[in-house]
Amino acid sequence: MKIILLFTWTACVFSIFYFSWVPSPELGQTGMLPLWLAEWTDANENLRTAVPFLILGILSVLLQFKKTQVLRFGIIGAMVIESVQLLMPERSFDMADVAFAVIGLILGIVIGMLLDRNQHSLG
Length: 123
Hints:
mainly alpha
């Protein structure tokens, strides 16, 4: 099970960086997302940043990564992503994206802790 979680965590990290650095902020143009998801992401620009970070937070706790390091690297990662977007003609640095990433990560860590606690109490 741990290998599946680790693979999913890695895929999540790569997808965050990939979709953050595609040339257009309209993710529907990539052709890589189902239509319903592409439309949702394009309509919810800042909220769409929180969702993958939330998943990353949950997976990080289930993989027993140190929560402080997860938060630290999440903040650094979000800042790097936004800084690179400064170099992209159709993209821009958005502090709200950083905030949504951090909020998503914190919520994910909390949910992961609750899931982990329930898993231990049932097992």
